[in-house]
Amino acid sequence: MSRTLTATTPTQVGRWGEDIALTILRCNSYALLERNWRPHTEPGSEPIRGEIDLVMIDPEMNLVFVEVKTRSSELFGHPLEAISRDKSRKLRALAYAWSRSHDTQDYRSMRIDAVSICGNSQHFTFEHLTGVA
């Protein structure tokens, strides 16, 4: 996993941000279950489009769905401003879809967190908000 930002496209910047978020969360005793999870469409059901960036377990055994927003600068606003009401609704639907397809009985609760990373590999900010959606 590269922690140096040599990205030029939004996809590369996003991947770099996810790498940083994963590293910092692991250093804070979070365990990774899945990364970049997308739901499978079940026959007869309305498809849910989207992706969960990180599915993790926090130190208290809570199931945490993490949305990572990365920007190289705040020129176009803070990264967390990209989590709109519609995005929150989609994150909840994705979290429930993940929960329906996995055994979740071992976890105390579940929540959706947001992580913001802004900057570059020499200087960046990291912000972690719990229970955002």
TrEMBL record:
<comment type="similarity">
    <text>Belongs to the UPF0102 family.</text>
</comment>
<dbReference type="Pfam" id="PF02021">
    <property type="entry name" value="UPF0102"/>
</dbReference>
<dbReference type="InterPro" id="IPR011856">
    <property type="entry name" value="tRNA_endonuc-like_dom_sf"/>
</dbReference>
<protein>
    <recommendedName>
        <fullName>UPF0102 protein GCM10023352_08480</fullName>
    </recommendedName>
</protein>
<dbReference type="InterPro" id="IPR011335">
    <property type="entry name" value="Restrct_endonuc-II-like"/>
</dbReference>
<dbReference type="InterPro" id="IPR003509">
    <property type="entry name" value="UPF0102_YraN-like"/>
</dbReference>
